[in-house]
Amino acid sequence: MRTVIIEDEAFAADALENQILQLRPNAQILEKLESVEESVKWLKTHEQPDVLFCDIHLSDGSSFEIFKQVDLQSPVIFTTAFDEFAIEAFKVNSVDYLLKPIKKDALERSIKKHESLQQGNMQQELENIRNLLRNGPLKPSVAKKSRFMVKSGQSIKVIQQEEIAFFLAEEGIVLLVNFDKQRFVIDYTLDQLEEKLDPEKFFRANRQLIVSINAVARAEPYFKGRLLLQTEPSAPGDQVISSNKASAFKKWLDL
Fold this sequence. Notes:
The protein is α/β, with parallel strands linked by helices and 255 residues long. The protein contains seven helices and 17 strands.
């Protein structure tokens, strides 16, 4: 089973690779790709794999952009943090999905589904993907949060979306920081917040930071195509945007 994994979180890609090899020791992991740009380039210059495991949200955009640029002949198994209801439209015979965190029994079922496919059914289901793409990306049914409830001393405080400067992962916790520089511990991971926040107003800058567009002070060129982000109020440390995310960040800012 010649396999390609498209996943922008290195630890998640490594974990999926290990699970696949545990279930199918003879599988070949041809490549692990991290971005839309990298995936398009690889798929255009290499023989297509037997199966493609593909995250929906990548560092530089949606994985749907890959399939708009590549004449895909391989079946796809999507991996996603969306809930089951939101991705029901993807449940077609030759295209499955795995809900993160990926469980080994679910992975086994997806691989068996792939192995049982007949070529005729595969072509029909690939056409289903193309129809989805022509109609635009699937909009998840996850409600976007407009406010957060936080603890302030012995009381509960409501913080509106417009008051939030950024979310910061620090020493195993996630902090909400408002424009008054107040910091509140919240019970969400950055991955969970990324799905719940309005993408027009918040951007996942790196593994530590989700920033509000109103908190961006400047972004300066950094080493190897990266950007050094400065926020107001100031986020601690050097907040660097990777070269893979730099173009998406500029587009988000409408530069």
